[in-house]
């Protein structure tokens, strides 16, 4: 297990977490030990993600760097984007999806590190994206004040919703039955079956990170020292606790045998690991902490274990491989042309050039049918 965190100082930190079994009358101890620092970027780090083999980092220098965590070597860089990398998400061991301020969403083969497709996803910046647990859908938000649903099975944009404000976070719940959209200090909770807001959570200050602890409990952190747990159904704050001495920049949660762990990173330089109680109304207990001495911006956890059955996105999303002889920068230079949507616009494709889909005047029920039918088909096949 390794904690990885990016910083304003352009450095990526890696800390191996060593666990010692509980002694008689004591408890298990967790100790983070400095493993590496890497200074590959020429600007502050803005995003980090990990799968079973690699850690990738995005930066304001417009590049994505790849680190092989098994061999502990720099594996190279991806240079397709022409703006700050805002979000990086792995799906299993085969795919990485990136978003950036150039408005592009790119899907990468995470073995050959080739760009499989590149799409002009938003008219402004892409600020965040999230992949559905099934791998069949993705959501993205951007500075064009839209929430966009992507059909990863057919490789096209499925729906565009105008949300009136610029959202900066979107996240699916673990079951994929709901998702949250964050605008400033508010969290709108959407139900997948109705494609509508079921409630709104209000935090004290601007929100910097959210993570689902269960399908109904959301951890929320922002421009303050406190982390809060909210019930997504009742919208009630279950508990809050002081996590850091400065604002919390990022969080990550995961489960291993005997522990449900929340990791937090802050501008105060600390990375902290917390063990969650079964009753989320009880504040978590601190497992360990480490001071990097830097202003942290993003956080990930690399778990040294084999990837589960989520090995790849659905096969339909994979086009023919790009020409290996082409330079990496040019392998994805053909992107979907952004055109003004109209009532007769065709649905866009992530693999073919095409127009934007008809904008958010589609009835909500239409989106509901598109999205839920897609997931029902998958369940029938299983």
From TrEMBL:
<dbReference type="Pfam" id="PF00400">
    <property type="entry name" value="WD40"/>
</dbReference>
<keyword id="KW-0677">Repeat</keyword>
<feature type="region of interest" description="Disordered">
    <location>
        <begin position="309"/>
        <end position="382"/>
    </location>
</feature>
<protein>
    <submittedName>
        <fullName>P21-activated protein kinase-interacting protein 1</fullName>
    </submittedName>
</protein>
<keyword id="KW-0853">WD repeat</keyword>
<feature type="repeat" description="WD">
    <location>
        <begin position="119"/>
        <end position="160"/>
    </location>
</feature>
<dbReference type="InterPro" id="IPR051959">
    <property type="entry name" value="PAK1-Kinase_Regulator"/>
</dbReference>
<dbReference type="InterPro" id="IPR015943">
    <property type="entry name" value="WD40/YVTN_repeat-like_dom_sf"/>
</dbReference>
<comment type="function">
    <text>Negatively regulates the PAK1 kinase. PAK1 is a member of the PAK kinase family, which has been shown to play a positive role in the regulation of signaling pathways involving MAPK8 and RELA. PAK1 exists as an inactive homodimer, which is activated by binding of small GTPases such as CDC42 to an N-terminal regulatory domain. PAK1IP1 also binds to the N-terminus of PAK1, and inhibits the specific activation of PAK1 by CDC42. May be involved in ribosomal large subunit assembly.</text>
</comment>
<feature type="compositionally biased region" description="Basic residues">
    <location>
        <begin position="366"/>
        <end position="382"/>
    </location>
</feature>
<keyword id="KW-0808">Transferase</keyword>
<dbReference type="GO" id="GO:0016301">
    <property type="term" value="F:kinase activity"/>
</dbReference>
<feature type="repeat" description="WD">
    <location>
        <begin position="257"/>
        <end position="277"/>
    </location>
</feature>
<feature type="compositionally biased region" description="Basic and acidic residues">
    <location>
        <begin position="325"/>
        <end position="340"/>
    </location>
</feature>
<keyword id="KW-0418">Kinase</keyword>
<dbReference type="InterPro" id="IPR020472">
    <property type="entry name" value="WD40_PAC1"/>
</dbReference>
<keyword id="KW-0690">Ribosome biogenesis</keyword>
<dbReference type="InterPro" id="IPR001680">
    <property type="entry name" value="WD40_rpt"/>
</dbReference>
<feature type="compositionally biased region" description="Basic and acidic residues">
    <location>
        <begin position="349"/>
        <end position="358"/>
    </location>
</feature>
<keyword id="KW-0734">Signal transduction inhibitor</keyword>
<feature type="repeat" description="WD">
    <location>
        <begin position="78"/>
        <end position="118"/>
    </location>
</feature>
<dbReference type="InterPro" id="IPR036322">
    <property type="entry name" value="WD40_repeat_dom_sf"/>
</dbReference>
<dbReference type="InterPro" id="IPR019775">
    <property type="entry name" value="WD40_repeat_CS"/>
</dbReference>
């Amino acid at each position: 297990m390794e904690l990885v965190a990016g910083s304003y100082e352009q450095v990526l930190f890696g800390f191996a977490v060593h666990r010692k079994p509980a002694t008689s009358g004591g408890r298990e101890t967790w100790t983070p030990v400095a493993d590496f620092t890497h200074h590959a970027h020429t600007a502050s780090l803005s995003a980090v993600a990990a799968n079973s083999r690699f850690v990738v980092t995005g930066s304001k220098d417009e590049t994505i760097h790849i680190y092989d965590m098994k061999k502990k070597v720099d594996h190279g860089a991806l240079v397709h984007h022409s703006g700050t990398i805002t979000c990086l998400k792995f799906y299993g061991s085969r795919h990485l999806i990136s978003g950036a301020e150039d408005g592009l969403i790119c899907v990468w083969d995470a073995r050959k590190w080739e760009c499989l497709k590149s799409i002009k996803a938003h008219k402004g910046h892409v600020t965040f994206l999230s992949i559905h647990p099934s791998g069949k859908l993705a959501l993205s938000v951007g500075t064009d004040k839209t929430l966009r649903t992507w059909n990863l099975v057919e490789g096209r944009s499925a729906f565009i919703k105008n949300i009136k404000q610029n959202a900066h976070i979107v996240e699916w719940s673990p079951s994929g039955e709901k998702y949250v959209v964050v605008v400033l200090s508010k969290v709108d909770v959407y139900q997948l079956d109705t494609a509508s807001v079921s409630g709104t959570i209000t935090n004290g200050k601007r929100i910097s990170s959210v993570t689902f602890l269960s399908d109904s409990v959301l951890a929320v952190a922002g421009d303050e020292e406190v982390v809060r747990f909210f019930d997504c159904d009742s919208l009630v704050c279950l508990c809050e606790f002081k996590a850091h001495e400065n604002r919390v920049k990022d969080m990550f949660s995961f489960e291993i045998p005997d522990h449900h762990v929340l990791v937090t990173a802050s501008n105060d330089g600390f990375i902290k690991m917390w063990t969650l109680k079964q009753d989320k109304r009880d504040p978590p207990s601190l497992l360990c902490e480490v001071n990097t001495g830097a202003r942290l911006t993003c956080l990930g956890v690399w778990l040294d274990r084999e990837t589960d059955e989520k090995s790849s996105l659905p096969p339909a999303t994979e086009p023919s491989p790009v020409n290996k002889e082409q330079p990496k920068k040019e392998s994805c230079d053909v992107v979907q042309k952004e055109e003004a949507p109209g009532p007769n616009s065709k649905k866009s494709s992530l693999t073919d050039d095409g127009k934007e889909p008809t904008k958010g005047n589609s009835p909500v029920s239409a989106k509901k049918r598109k999205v839920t039918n897609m997931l029902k088909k998958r369940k029938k096949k299983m």
